[in-house]
Amino acid sequence: MRVAIVQMSVLPGAKSENFAKVEKMVAQTVQTNGNIDLFVLPELWSTGYKLAELSHLASSEGEEEAIFLGDLAARYHTWFAGGSVAAKTKVGIVNRAQIIDRQGQLQACYDKIHLVPMLDEHTYLVAGNTPCVLSIEGITFGFAICYDIRFCELLRKLALEGSEALIVSAEWPLVRLHHWQALLKARAIENQFYVLASNNTSLEGTLFAGHSVGHGPDGTTLCSFEFEEGVRICDIDRQHVHAIRQKIPVFSDRRPDIY
User: Fold this and answer.
1) Average pLDDT of the segment spanning 41-65
2) How confident is the model at residue 15 (pLDDT cuts 50, 70, 90)?
3) Predicted confidence (pLDDT) per residue in 150-167, tens digit
4) Which domains does the chain have, with CATH numbers?
């Protein structure tokens, strides 16, 4: 499977400009690289991290973004998975990752489970309660959004439920770049799955870390960014995951009766 990780500077509050940027980056990627099976976008790619303004920026159930990505998915015969949006629901606004198939249909959603207390996310958002694991054309994916990657229990649960790859969408700050890099590689190694992570990049206003990355199930770096906008391609193969898991059998060697 060919996965395209998109790193972009999300413009805060500028939905139409962010839509146009995504459309351009997807079109250029397909034109340059041919068929792409799946695109990964950053957290809150349409609105940016404007928490206090989400009450008017968020769309009902994330429908506006789902329709836009659905049109792109059908046009380029590709999946979108992971890029999160602010979605108005009956219980409040959630930070929602959307998974959209090649026909442009919304197949699943994941609402961010862990809200960041240091940034008062709980004041503006409602936490999700349900992890998401989904098979996309023969490969099983789990989903995480930003702060989620600090919680190894969640990601191990995704692996135990069959995930062979983890998609991470983030607006991770520059001040904790070294945490971002260490955690992503550790999550790939300890769970022996691919980690495909897309982050916002910005050196104006709030400083976001960029450094989106794709790691293999042994922690090998398959593609990487620094602060530049762009797209990188990762080729992933579920057979590689299972070869690693057979070679170092951490799952069968677990002792859950003790811990």
Assistant:
1) 97
2) very high
3) 999 999 999 999 999 999
4) 2-247 (3.60.110.10)
Residue of 65, 109, 121, 146 with catalytic role: 146
* Mean pLDDT of all residues in 58-67: 98
> Is the Cα torsion angle 228, 233, 236, 240 positive or negative in sign?
negative
Burial status of residue 170 (CB atoms within 10 A of its CB: 0-12, 13-18, 19 or more): buried
pLDDT level of residue 202 (50, 70, 90 thresholds): confident
Catalytic one among 15, 112, 132, 171?
A: 112
Task: Please give the average per-residue pLDDT across 24-29, as a whole number.
Answer: 98
pLDDT digits (tens, 9 = 90+) for 138-153: 999 999 999 999 999 9
> Structure tokens of 259?
């811990």
Beta bridge pairs of residue 170:
199
**112 is annotated as an active-site residue:** yes
* Catalytic residue selected from 43, 61, 121, 171: 43
Catalytic residue list contains 146: yes
DSSP states of the chain as a string? -EEEEEEB---TT-HHHHHHHHHHHHHHHHHHH---SEEE--TTTTT-S-GGGHHHHPEETTHHHHHHHHHHHHHHT-EEEEEEEEEEETTEEEEEEEEE-TTS-EEEEEE-----GGGTHHHH--------EEEETTEEEEEEEGGGGG-HHHHHHHHHTT-SEEEEEE--BGGGHHHHHHHHHHHHHHHTSEEEEEEBEESSSS-EE---EEE-TTS-EEEE-SS--EEEEEE--HHHHHHHHHHS-TTTT--TTT-
